[in-house]
Amino acid sequence: MSASEPLLLGIETSCDETGVGIVRGRTLLADTTASSVPEHVRYGGVVPEIASRAHVEALAPTVARALSDAKVSIGDLDGIAVTAGPGLAGCLVVGVAAAKAMALALGLPLYAVNHLAAHIAVDTLEHGPLPRDCLALLVSGGHTSLLRVGDLAAGDYQTLGTTLDDAAGEAFDKVARLLGLGFPGGPLIDACARTGDPSAIRFPRALRGAEYGYDVSFSGLKTAVARWVEVAQVTPATPLPVADIAASFQAAVVDVLVERTLRATREFGITDVILGGGVAANSRLRAVLTEQAGRRGVRVRAPRPALCTDNGAMVAALGSHLMSRGVPPTPLACGVDPSAGMSVPGDGRSAAPHRWHSV
Ligand code: KG4
Ligand code: ZN
After folding, report:
1. Helices (H), ranges, 86-184
2. Does residue 85 line the site of ligand 1, with CB under 6 A?
3. How far apart are CA 211 and CA 351, in angstroms?
4. Which atom from ligand 1 is nearest to the alpha carbon of 119?
5. How far apart are CA 217 and CA 77, in angstroms?
6. Is the pLDDT of residue 348 over 60?
7. pLDDT digits over 229-247, tens only?
């Protein structure tokens, strides 16, 4: 780490985590998170209004904690990065308003960034610069995308496939609720599946085969699990094999994601895959993808699980990457874009991670 590298503070408020990260160049100095998850548990999902209010309360103390963890003062910062989309509108507004206030008060450049691009960029903190042409599998509670990434800073990326219905994490959360495991479901299913048999129940793998392209669909799988549970409950004397169901469901999700990813590496001759998003913390996904890719000479990079779920470090990492590449900062009159993707709808162009509409 060199003191001449820029010191970036990143703010993430797109969903239920208030994340503040501080990086110097590609060195992580602080990653501080306040979560409103406990406030959503009784609803079995994130309630946007509750999440927005929690961000308002948590943001200033989380910034203060991150500065203290990083042992830097606010006056040392060289730039502010913030998630401007995709995400929950009210939640994004809290983070973007705070980031603008800091940028204005401190006279610093603002980088309003794409949450999905940040999930990719965070890997640079642990594994160095991104390979020039790679695939990114982004799987989280709100999105499931397979992307071909040329140059993140130049907005050179292309969406190969996405989900036609539920996001991968959403499927984990819904199935966990069905099995009475709690919320958020991903880590609970992951833990429960460790004692189950992944081949106990053959759940469907939808849209498998090159003729379907790279899109995925998880709603049929979710329904198949619900039907299986319904039928099993007709004989209530036998306890529900929750671990086997969790393991078999998880195996189906992982099979689908691994098949798409490896097929894309073959089609495009790509040898590097970056895994990102909350579901990238899944132990089976990491293990199976790494093992099967390895056999084909494909390298898989995945941030440590704590950096896969939403956090401020990923936003700071992308801001730092953009700044180091000389990308112009975002105008202070920028807005948020709750449904931002990684492509500009309609014309097939890529949307750079820092290009936002003015309001
Ligand atoms: O990236 P993230 O923190 O937030 C969004 O941008 O959505 O992802 C949260 C999602 C939740 O659906 C959660 O259940 C899932 O990631 N998740 C997991 C695991 N850890 C978190 N899913 C499967 N296995 C895990 N270990
Ligand atoms: Zn996310």
Report:
1. 89-106, 115-121, 123-127, 168-178
2. no
3. 27
4. 1
5. 43
6. no
7. 999 888 777 889 999 999 9
Helix extents (H) in 269-331:
283-295, 305-308, 312-324
Q: Answer positive or negative: Cα dihedral of 276, 279, 280, 281.
A: positive
Distance CA 350, CA 160 (A): 12
Would the CB of 285 count as within 6 Å of ligand 1? no
The tokens describing 213, both together, are 């392209």
> What are the residue ranges of helices labelled H in the chain?
37-40, 48-70, 89-106, 115-121, 123-127, 168-178, 185-193, 219-232, 242-268, 283-295, 305-308, 312-324
Q: How far apart are CA 84 and CA 29, in angstroms?
A: 23
Give the Cβ contact number of residue 122 at 10 Å: 28
Tokens of 291: 């093992």
CA distances from 21 to 34, 81, 161 (A): 12, 10, 30
Q: Please state whether the predicted TM-score (pTM) of the whole model is above 0.85.
A: yes
Report how far ligand 1's centroid is from the alpha carbon of 207 (Å): 23
Distance 249 CA to ligand 1 centre (A): 15
Q: Please give the domain boundaries of the chain with CATH numbers for all domains.
A: 7-122+311-324 (3.30.420.40), 132-306 (3.30.420.40)
Q: What is the mean pLDDT of the chain?
A: 92
